[in-house]
Amino acid sequence: MAIQIITDSTSDIGREEAEKMGVTIVPLKVLFGEKEYREGIEITMDDFYQKLARAEKLPTTSQPAPDDFLGHFQKAKEVGDSVIVLLIAGKFSGTTQSAVIAKEIAEYDAIYIIDSLTAITGLRLLVEHAVKLREQHWEAEKIVAALEKSKDRIVLMAMVDTLEYLHKGGRLSKSSAVLGSLLRFKPILSVKDGVIGVVGKARGTNKGIARMLEIMEEMGEIDPAYPVTFGYTAEDSKGLLLKEKVTEKYNLGETAIYPVGCVVGTHVGPGACVITYIRK
Fold it and tell me: Concatenated DSSP letters for 46-105?
């Protein structure tokens, strides 16, 4: 009996990478008008951001259906495998709800569904940790317990160019969006317990990154047992600058930077930079 690991496309783990990791990706969808695209399958990140720049109306996003999970669950049941399912925060998307419905239909107890309370690089971090523990021959229940503890210590922070996308997508209140956009400030966001909040602002990229470093000190020290990852939407210059400054300040070893995909990109827009780590 083996342990299968399933995540969704908001982890931004590419298909080839997922295959090497032994991870299954269930795609969310992005819709431009009536045209629907499965993230990572029918639309690339580059195509998405080009379409977003040209779009007169913001695209919308859609969660997977229970059937998108059910086939994977039934196959695991047939061979007696355990399944660990790591998904985007339930407050961002109904993806977890779809997986829960599929588990009920499959009638199989060895399916462990985890609401990551995060997304993008935060979700990726948990998936990579699950893969590492599986390689160390941990039992499924122990892996799940470790992931549940780790997810509460994830710090995911982003600086965005505007809060317009989050407000129009219904992920942020109008008052927060107006406050963050005043005087050309760059808003700094954090995800805590699956909720997005504005935790700071600064005028300009350099001051914004300096403020992010200050907020990191307030949020808690980096746990060196876990990787520190960075992200960006559409264009990587701010993400690389953030990576450089954090690496320099904390004397980090090798770190990775990843593009943020279509579904989350819909809600934050281009020009964002992201840091994710697990605090001590």
Answer: HHHHHHHHH-SS--EEEPPPHHHHHHHHHHHHHHT-EEEEEES-TTT-SHHHHHHHHHHH
Alpha carbon 187 to chain centroid, angstroms: 19
Query: CA torsion 215→221→222→224, rounded to 10°?
Result: 170
**pLDDT tens-digit readout, 204-227:** 999 999 999 999 999 988 999 999
- Rounded CA-CA distance 164/73 in Å is 38
- Distances in Å between the Cα of 215 and the Cα atoms of 126, 159, 205, 233, 246 are 22, 12, 15, 21, 12
- Return the SS3 of 257: strand
6's tokens: 């399933």
Q: Contact, 66 vs 102, CB < 8 A?
A: yes
β-strand pairing of 185-192 with 229-232: unpaired
**Structure confidence by residue, pLDDT tens digits, 134-189:** 999 999 999 999 999 999 999 999 999 877 766 555 555 555 545 545 556 888 99
Q: pTM score > 0.90 for this model?
A: yes
